[in-house]
Protein hupE (Marinomonas profundimaris), 194 residues
Amino acid sequence: MRLSTLKMGLAALIAVIPALALAHPGHEHTTSFMTGFMHPMGGLDHLLAMLAIGLWAASLGGRPLWAVPAAFVGTMLIGGGLSVAGIQVPFIEQGIVLSVVLMGVLLVGAARFPVAVCAGIAALFAVFHGAAHGLEMPLNANGAEYALGFAAATALLHVVGIGFGSAIARFQAPIVTRVTGSLIAVAGLFLAIA
């Protein structure tokens, strides 16, 4: 089971590599799906938070392995819908940066809570990420395609985090998760002051 999760994570990482190359200026996205897909890839804040969610889910194991990322993706779509509908979500940028810092702290502390609490934490952070995606949707984008794109990219980043976390668990090296969490938290602090 763990080997198949590792293979899924590696496959997801390989799938993301070409997309990351498109994140550089000068490449035109020809579809709303690709524009949505590239949005989470283009910001370090989104990238770190989404990888951290997958890594945290992997460290929790069991039901949270899929419940936490699913809660994030589902609520992120709701947050995006709020922005598109013109409903203002307060403190979006602060919420995103806080999500990076706190996800890092949760990883450092090897935090374990009931499944509903873990999913609730992920969902709370997801509202801010989704609202940012919705606000930054190009005016000429097809909303459904754009949302599907950023949801797919987010799920893919979660799978990469899960794959990395599963590899760490396989080698019984929880210190790697904690060190990664500290790096994520520190990066979040730098994002806060930048």
Confidence is low (pLDDT under 50) at residues 16-29. Residues 2-193 form one domain.
